[in-house]
Amino acid sequence: MSVNHKDIGTIYLYMGFWSGLIGLSLSHCMRVELNHPGEWLLGGYTYHSIMSMHAFMMIFFFVMPTSIGGLGNWFIPLMLKTKDLAMPRLNNLSVWLQLGSLFLMMMAFMSSGGLGCGWTMYPPLSSIEFMDGIPVDLAVFSLHMAGMSSIAGSINFLVTIFNMRLGALFFMHLNPMLIWTLFGTSILLVTSVPVLAAGLTLLILDRHFSTSFYYPEGGGDPILWQHLFWFFGHPEVYILILPAFGVISHILSRSSAKIHVFGKIGMSWASMGIAWMGFLVWGHHMFVAGLDIDTRAYFTAATLMIAVPTGVKVFNWIATIYGGMYRLKATHPSTFWALGFVLLFTVGGLTGVILANAALSTLLHDSYYVVAHFHYVLSMGAVFAIFGGFWFWFPFWTGMVPRKDLVLTHFCLTFIGVNCTFFPMHWLGLTGMPRRYQDYPEMHTAWQAIASAGGYCSFLAMGMFFATIWEVFLVERPLIFPFFVRSESEYYGTGAGEGNTVLPCGSHTNGQLPKFVIFKHKEKKPYYCTVIM
Amino acid sequence: MIISLPSLYSSSGSSPESLGSSPKVGSSIKKVNIKNSKVLPHRYPWAECGPSPWPACVSIMLVSLFIHMAFGFNCMVSKAELWGGTLLMLISLVMILWAWWESLNLECLVGMMTGPELKNLKTAFFLFLWTEIFFFVGLFWAFFHSALVPSDELGCMWPPIVGIMPLDPFALPLVGVIILISSGYSANRAVKHVKGRYPEWRAMGTTVFLGVLFTCLQLYEYKSAGFTMQDGIYGSCFFVITGFHGLHVIGGTMFNTYCLALMLKGDYTPSQMLSLRCAVWYWHFVDIVWIVAYLTVYVWGNWGMYITPKQVWDKKMSIYEGWPSKEDIFHFIFI
C-alpha cells in the first residue's frame, strides 16, 4: 500500500532475495542430480521443471526485482535529489504486480508436474499437444504480469529521469552511473517487453483458440516464436546486467577514493551503446534455427560489435582501480565483489565473444559452453554486483555495519563455489555435453562432480550469508564514520544542508526543492551548483 | 461534484494554509479551499499522494483473472463460467481503475495538477503509447514473417492458394479508414474548442459517434467474412491484428466518451485538459495503427487477389466496343 519509494524498494529487495533463495535451491537440486550420471534422483520431466523454474526465478524474480526494483526505487529519487518517483502510486502497482506474478509462477510450478518446457518456452513443446494443462498458461500469464510491472516501473523511472532532475540541469550531467544504466535499462524494458507480450499472446491463442501462428500445418512457423522471444530476450539479458554495471562503477570509484568512475562520459555513452545495440543482435540465439547464411553473418558481426562498448567499460573500471590504494585490511567488503565482477564478467564476456561467431555456435549451441557463458556473466556478474551493492549500501539503508570477516567469508565461499561450478562447464561444453540434459555419458562425470562440489560450496556460502545477516541485525553495530568520500553529485541528500550526515537514510528525504545558485564569472560560462535549503 | 470518498491524506481537519510559492516554481497551483484537505507542500511542484489501496486491488484482481482464464482455457470449468466470470472480473477491474481515476480527479480538485505534474503525466502517457506501438510491432512482425515468404503449406502464395476469400480493401475497410481519419480530424477540433474556451461539444461527440460506427462496421465485417481466426495463419494474423486494433478502438472510444462527459460538465479549462489531450493522442495512435494495418494486411496482403479498380474500369468501358479506348484518347491528345 505504501507509496514511499524507499518502502517499495525494500519490498522489492525482500522479494528478490526470497526468490533468489528459491532459485538457488532449485539449482542445488539440479546439481545433486547431475552429480552422478544416470537418472537417479529426479524424473526427467521433474528435472526439466526444476531447470525451467530455476531460470524464471533467477531472471524475473531475483535479478530484476533486486537490481531494477530495489536499487532503482531506492536510488533514482535520492540521486536526482527529488522526493520520490514521478508517480508513486504506479510504483506501488509495479511491486504488487510483481508479487502477483510471483504467485502465478509458483502456481505454475506447483501444478501438474510443473513447467517442463524451459524458460524460453519454444513451441511446439509449449503447444497444447505436448504440454496441455495449466502450468504453461499460468507461466505465460505470470510473464504478462511481470511485463506489466516492468513497463510500469520503467515508465516511472523514465519520467523521473526526464523531468525531475534537480541535481543536474543538463541531461549529460547525469553523473551517477546508476542513473545512466537504469535509464538504459528502462528504455530496453519499455521497448522489448511489449514484443514479448505479443508473442506470449500468440502462444495462448495457439494453445487454446486453434490459431496457427506457430504451427507449420497452418502456414505458421515455430521460428516466429524464437524471433519474438529473442527480440525481447536479448535486451532482457542487457536489462539484467546494465544496473550491475552502474553498481560496479559506484563501488569502484568509491573504493579508489575517486569522485567518479574513470571516463564517466565514455561510460555513459557505452551504456547507451550497449542498450541500443542490444536490439540488433537477437539472432545470435538462433544460429542453428535455419537462418540464412547472410543473416547469420550479420548477427555475428553485430554481436561482436557489442563487445566494443563493453570492453570500454571494463577498461574504464580498470583505470578507475588504478591509482587507488587497496590494502586488504582497509578494503570495504563490497570492493571484493566489485573486483570479482570485473574479472569474472570479463571471462564471461570473452566466452560470449567466442559464441558470437555463428560457425562456432553451430557446434556450441545448447551445450554447456553456453551455460558456462551466461552463468559467468549472470551468476558472477549480476549476482556479484547485487551482493556488492547490497553490502555497499547496507549501512546507508540500516545504519548498521556487518562483521567484515563474515562478509568476506561469504564472498570467498561464493567465489570458490561459483567458479568450481561453472568453470568446468566450459570443458563439458567443448567435449559435447548438451544443455538441459539430466543424464550424460560417463566421460563427463569428473567435471560434473567438480561442478556439483562447487554447488555444495555455494550452499554453504548462502548459509554464511544468513549468518552475516542474522549477526548484523542481532548486534546492530552502528556506523559512525561513513566510509564514503563525498563525490561530485552523489550526496544522496538526506539531511538538510549537506549529504548523508545521518545514517540510516530517513524515510522522507528531499522534502523541498533545492535552490539553484548560479555562479557567473564575467567572461566565462556560468556554472551551476545546487544547494539544499 | 460532491466527493464522498474518505480522505486519502491526513486525517486531521486542518484548514489549508496560504499557499505561498516562490515565483519560479509552483506558481500554477490553483488556490483551492476545500474543507478537511491537507495543505499542499508548495516547495514540491509535483503531486504527492498518500497510501492507496487501488494498486493492490488491481494486482489481486489480475491474479484472479489470470488463474480463472488458465483454468477456463483448459476446460476445467464450463464455458459459461469462463466467459461470465471473465466478464465479471473485467468489470470489477474497470471499477477498481475507476476508483483510482477518482483519486486523480480529487488530486486535480485540490490543485495538485501543477504544470510540472502535468508534464510528468504527459511524458508517462507518451511512454505508454510507445509500449502500445511495440505491442503492435510484435503482431505485425508475425504477419510479415508469414506473408513475406509464404510457406509451402499455403502454396507459397499470400493469400493462401486455397481456402481464403480475401476481403476487398476498397470496400468496407476503406470506409473504415475514412471514418477513422475523419474522427481524428474532429478530435483535433475538439481539443481546439477546449483550448479556445468554446462551449462546443459536437466535435468530440462526432469522434465518439465515428468510433462507435467503426466498431459496428468491423463487427459486420467479421460476421460477413468468409474465413475465421482458425483458418490457418492468414485468418490468425488477420483477426489478431484487426481484433486487437478493435479492442483498442473500443478502449479509445470509452476514453473519448469519458472526456465528452467531462466536457459537457464543463470540467475542462485550457490549462487543465490533459485527459482530453491524452484521449485524442490515443485516438490518433489507434487511427495510425488502422492505416498501417489497412495498407499492410488489406492492401499489400491481398494484392492481386481481389478485383481492382482498373478491372472495374475496363469492364465498364468494354461496353463501348473499344471506342474511345484509353489508347484512342491518348492518341487524340498527344499525337
TrEMBL record, chain A:
Membrane-crossing segments per the record: 12-34, 54-76, 96-121, 141-166, 178-205, 237-253, 265-285, 297-324, 336-360, 372-394, 406-427, 447-470
One of the record's GO cellular component terms: respiratory chain complex IV
Domain Cytochrome oxidase subunit I profile: residue ranges: 1-476
Keyword Secreted: no
Subcellular location: Membrane; Mitochondrion inner membrane
Pfam family, any one: COX1
Keywords: Copper, Electron transport, Heme, Iron, Membrane, Metal-binding, Mitochondrion, Mitochondrion inner membrane, Respiratory chain, Transmembrane, Transmembrane helix, Transport
PROSITE patterns: COX1 (PS50855), COX1_CUB (PS00077)
Taxonomic superkingdom: Eukaryota
GO biological process, one term: mitochondrial electron transport, cytochrome c to oxygen
Major localization class: membrane
GO-annotated molecular function: cytochrome-c oxidase activity; heme binding; metal ion binding
Entries under InterPro entries matching the protein: Cyt_c_oxase-like_su1_dom, Cyt_c_oxase-like_su1_sf, Cyt_C_Oxase_1, Cyt_c_Oxase_su1_BS, Cyt_c_oxase_su1_dom
Catalytic activity: 4 Fe(II)-[cytochrome c] + O2 + 8 H(+)(in) = 4 Fe(III)-[cytochrome c] + 2 H2O + 4 H(+)(out)
Cofactor(s) this protein cannot do without: heme
Pathway assignment: Energy metabolism; oxidative phosphorylation
Membrane topology type: Multi-pass membrane protein
EC numbers on record: 7.1.1.9
The family this protein is said to belong to: Belongs to the heme-copper respiratory oxidase family.
Chain's role: Component of the cytochrome c oxidase, the last enzyme in the mitochondrial electron transport chain which drives oxidative phosphorylation. The respiratory chain contains 3 multisubunit complexes succinate dehydrogenase (complex II, CII), ubiquinol-cytochrome c oxidoreductase (cytochrome b-c1 complex, complex III, CIII) and cytochrome c oxidase (complex IV, CIV), that cooperate to transfer electrons derived from NADH and succinate to molecular oxygen, creating an electrochemical gradient over the inner membrane that drives transmembrane transport and the ATP synthase.
UniProt protein name: Cytochrome c oxidase subunit 1
Species this protein is from: Lingula anatina
TrEMBL record, chain B:
Ranges where the Heme-copper oxidase subunit III family profile domain occurs: 42-302
Keyword Transmembrane appears in the UniProt entry: yes
BP GO annotations: mitochondrial electron transport, cytochrome c to oxygen
Cellular compartments per GO CC: membrane; mitochondrion
Topology of this chain in the membrane: Multi-pass membrane protein
Major localization listed first in the record, in broad terms: membrane
Membrane spanning stretches: 53-75, 82-101, 121-144, 156-181, 201-220, 232-255, 281-301
Record keywords: Membrane, Mitochondrion, Translocase, Transmembrane, Transmembrane helix
GO terms for MF: cytochrome-c oxidase activity
Gene3D superfamilies: Cytochrome c oxidase, subunit III, four-helix bundle
Domain of life: Eukaryota
Localization: Membrane
Disordered: annotated span: 1-26
Family stated for the protein in its record: Belongs to the cytochrome c oxidase subunit 3 family.
Name by which UniProt lists this protein: Cytochrome c oxidase subunit 3
Lineage: Eukaryota, Metazoa, Spiralia, Lophotrochozoa, Brachiopoda
Gene: cox3
